[in-house]
Each structure stands twice: as structure tokens, then as C-alpha cells.
Amino acid sequence: MRVRRLLGLALATLAFAGMSVTASSAATAAAPQVSWADCKYGGGSPVKHSSGYWYCQGGTYNGQRVYGSAGY
After folding, report:
1. Angle, CA of 10, 16 and 20, to the nearest 5°
2. Model confidence at 51, in pLDDT bands (50, 70, 90)?
3. Where does the pLDDT of residue 2 fall: very low under 50, low under 70, confident under 90, or very high at 90 and above?
4. Contact, 32 vs 65, CB < 8 A?
5. I need a labelling partner for 70 at 20 to 30 A (CA). Which of 15, 30, 49, 64 fits?
6. 68 or 20: which carries more pLDDT confidence?
7. For residue 33, what are the CA distances in angstroms to 19, 49, 70?
8. Cβ distance 55 to 65 under 8 Å?
9. CB 66 within 8 A of CB 46
10. Cβ distance 55 to 33 under 8 Å?
């Protein structure tokens, strides 16, 4: 009986650990953003999209959204 409880506890612990790993990877999978300066340093140029947001065009950060006060 005690072995069953320990086995259940171990499985529950693994399940919670797995859930936290997937939650943290989902959080890091958010849309990539780059600073205005990093876009230029990477060889790109910030371009204003029709949606109103700035995106890095060309270079290392091509296609990534630009954030920072210089871009707005």
C-alpha cells in the first residue's frame, strides 16, 4: 500500500515538472523582438509596417519586431 502511494506521488511530481517545462518553453516562444540599435548593428534597417509596428528588414534580425523609444 505504501509503495502505491509513493509511486503515485512520484508520477504526480513528474507530471508537474513536465507541465512547468512546457509552460516555460511556451513563454520563451513569444514573438522575437529586437532593439532599434541591435537591428542596425546586425546589418538591418528598421521599417514601419502597414500595421503600424516597426520591423527589422535585412541583416541578422530580419523580420523581427523592433521595440524602443527611437522607433516610435
Report:
1. 145
2. confident
3. confident
4. yes
5. 30
6. 68
7. 26, 14, 14
8. yes
9. yes
10. no
CA neighbor of 54 nearest in space, from 46, 63, 44, 62? 46
Contact 64, 55 (CB under 8 A): yes
Residue 60 has which C-alpha cell? 541578422
Q: Cβ contacts of residue 57 below 8 Å, gap of 6+?
A: 44, 45, 46, 47, 63
- Give per-residue pLDDT as tens, 15-50: 666 655 555 555 556 668 999 999 999 999 999 999
DSSP per-residue codes, the chain: -HHHHHHHHHHHHHHHHHHHHHHHHHHHTSPPEEEHHHHHHTT-EEEE-TTS-EEEESSTTTTPEEESGGG-
Confirm whether pTM is higher than 0.70. no
